[in-house]
Prior knowledge:
By secondary structure, the chain is of the alpha+beta class. A four-stranded mixed sheet has the order 2-1-4-3, with no helix packed on it. It contains two helices and four strands; from the N terminus they run ββββαα.
Amino acid sequence: MKADIHPDYHPVVFRDLTSGESFLTRSTAVSDKTVEWEDGNSYPVIDVEISSASHPFYTGKQRILDSAGRVEKFNQRFKGFGA
């Protein structure tokens, strides 16, 4: 591996603004803001608007679209087209 070509990979806290959850992980992202973590150390914090804690797919609160109703509406609208 070549020296000095890789970005700095360090611990970072990602804070979900929607749910208030925070995740400590490693990343190359940088931030001027810091937060004190549960272990007493201070880490850079990056605020995100959505994460697995608040995304509807992961929380099970996603909407199911009525595709059958949409198909019937489409067919009803264009039933005489091209005949």
